[in-house]
Design brief:
about 25% helix, hydrogen peroxide, binds protoporphyrin IX containing FE, metal-binding, heme, iron, alpha+beta, Catalase, ten-stranded antiparallel beta sheet
């Protein structure tokens, strides 16, 4: 956590600026110079002009002028808390990561929940996906599970992400709506992207208006790999299951809450943790092998698909507890930088094309957002285990190599020689065989865009199905362009006829347009 103000680093907290009778420390400039008057600028005569030599005034105003940094390009509005992960069931049989080997071991964690579309100042209880990003400060380095509260995503390939986000955020000419899915650009894009249908159904479900961050599930979304001590790979999907249960609000409540208290979710988390009512999640894993992957109805690399828990049960292996609010919102929650590429020995990626693009995107955007390559030196981002390398300099460098050696190999004796790579303990990528031509065509195995959307709809209770239908009607009724509403209905007909009819009726559209022609026939034989 950040240094408390007024502490003088390197001087054992001793001050030479004095303190008043009540022991309140004397205010200083950033240079540590005691301040006599923080209410009045230095002037030439009581009613005269301000003087440039007023270094205290200039430093204070200069610093204030530079307080803002770019907000995140997505997930700008969020709220974070500290806690820990405790392993309750060893995964050593399938994974050699230190965090999964010692039952009872606690690993410090920082979690940031967020909305996706709205800016920093938008409301909490909007209809949107929620980010569920977890940083685990393991003994082998930082591992981030940068997930959402919905197990699938809108697009299959990262190259579509800028378009998707442009379409989801405020429209560029008018600058609104700031945090709603209800607008033409969003529905235009998703209705032209059949692959979005499954996720759109989740976004229109009660999952997208959670009662609180404490009552949400979290999902790593992509298929990852666990690697065992012999280098064997097992596929894995990560789940966070709230011990508080799942709760949502209904749409009318959401509208009222947003009006009365746009900070509803962040206040809820702050109050719960400060009251000692620490929220907890179980970490669950779905584990499967190549044989299952080959027999599965969908491609395990396709992030618009989930693996039904009936087919691969979720094994609970640990718990995440949030028990400490931040000392400072900006220093921790704003400056935290999650990245899918932050991964530790024993865990690896797959070729999911969305994941591969994310691996590039986060580091890139954070270098800009946090002002250069040294944002890993900010305490919230730094590992809590020792770290050594020869990276140096750049803006705000706090951890340059000590001594003579800033390169390797070098022949300097220890300790000047510094760190060396270690083939025995260092990170090794799973040596997956690769072959094939360089192409842009998407695999045909990614072609079924409707069957899981249908499976999701029919798995809902009748009340939840009505909420979904009402959400489609409400959101699409805000769309001004009739052709976009009709186009959306062509997809809903492939999801479920009752849903499509209900939405069409709510929108006053009759007759129903023909169903969109699916790339792959919709499967009606899948269980709910
Ligand atoms: C931020 C999740 C897809 C780029 C975030 C955050 C989460 C998240 C939770 C907020 C992190 C925080 O709290 O600081 C996801 C999930 C995805 C997904 C679950 C799909 C499964 C993508 C894709 C890209 C992308 C495809 C780009 C190719 C970004 C960027 C940020 C971000 C640039 C802002 C990061 C920052 O400024 O620190 N994402 N995302 N995301 N995501 Fe994603």
């Amino acid at each position: 956590s950040p240094q408390p103000s007024h502490t003088i680093a390197g001087q054992g907290g001793e001050t030479h600026q004095g303190a008043d009778d009540a022991g309140i420390p004397t205010m200083t400039t950033q240079q540590g110079v005691p301040v006599s008057d923080d209410q009045n600028t230095l002037r030439n005569g009581a009613r005269g002009p301000a003087l440039m030599e007023d270094f205290h005034f200039r430093e204070k105003i200069f610093h204030f002028d530079h307080e803002r940094i770019p907000e995140r390009v997505v997930h700008a509005r969020g709220y974070g808390a500290h806690g820990y992960f405790e392993l309750t069931d060893s995964l050593a049989d399938v994974c050699h990561a230190d965090i999964f080997r010692h039952v009872g071991e606690k690993t410090p964690a920082f979690v940031r929940f967020s909305t996706v579309a709205g800016g920093r100042g938008s409301s909490d209880v909007v209809r949107d996906v929620r980010g569920f990003a977890v940083k685990l400060y393991t003994r082998q380095g930082n591992w981030d599970i940068v997930g959402n509260n919905i197990p699938v995503f809108f697009i299959q390939d990262a190259i579509k992400f800028p378009d998707f986000v442009h379409a989801a955020k405020e429209e560029p000419d008018r600058g609104f709506p700031q945090a709603q899915t209800a607008h033409d650009n969003f529905w235009d894009f998703v209705s032209l992207s059949p692959e979005a249908t499954h996720m759109v159904c989740w976004a229109m479900s009660d999952r997208a208006i959670p009662r609180s961050f404490r009552f949400m599930e979290g999902f790593g979304v992509h298929t990852f790999r666990l690697i065992d001590a012999q280098g064997r790979s097992t596929y894995v999907k990560f789940h966070w299951k709230p011990r508080q249960g799942l709760q949502s609000v209904v749409w009318n409540e959401a509208l009222k809450i947003n009006g009365a208290d746009p900070d509803f979710h962040r206040r809820d988390l702050w109050n719960a943790i400060n009251a000692g009512d620490y929220p907890e999640w179980d970490l669950g894993v779905q584990l499967f092998d190549d044989e299952f992957a080959d027999s599965f109805d969908f491609d395990i690399l396709d992030p618009t698909k989930l693996i039904p828990e009936e087919l691969v049960p979720v094994r609970r292996v640990g718990r995440l507890v949030l028990n400490r609010v931040v000392d400072n919102f900006f220093a921790e929650t704003e400056q935290v930088a999650f990245c899918t590429q932050n991964i530790v020995p024993g865990i690896d990626f797959t070729n999911d094309p969305l994941l591969q693009g994310r691996n590039f995107s986060y580091l890139d955007t954070q270098t800009k957002r946090l002002g250069g390559p040294n944002f890993t030196h900010i305490p919230i981002n730094a590992p809590k285990c020792p770290f050594h390398n020869f990276q140096q300099d750049g803006h705000m460098a706090m951890h340059n190599p000590k001594g003579r050696a800033n390169y390797e190999p070098n022949s300097w004796p220890q300790p000047q020689g510094g760190a060396r790579e270690n083939p025995a303990t260092g990170y090794r990528s799973f040596p997956q065989e690769q072959s094939g031509e360089k192409v842009r065509e998407r695999s045909a195995s990614f072609g079924d865009h409707y069957s899981q959307a249908r499976q999701f709809y029919i798995s809902q209770t009748p009340v939840e199905q009505t909420h979904m239908k009402d959400a489609f009607v409400f959101e699409l009724s805000k769309v001004e362009t009739p052709a976009i509403r009709v186009r959306m209905l062509t997809h809903l007909r492939n999801v479920d006829e009752t849903l499509a009819h209900g939405v069409a009726e709510g929108l006053g559209i009759s007759p129903l347009p023909p169903a969109a022609r699916p790339f792959v026939p919709v499967r009606t034989d899948l269980p709910a």
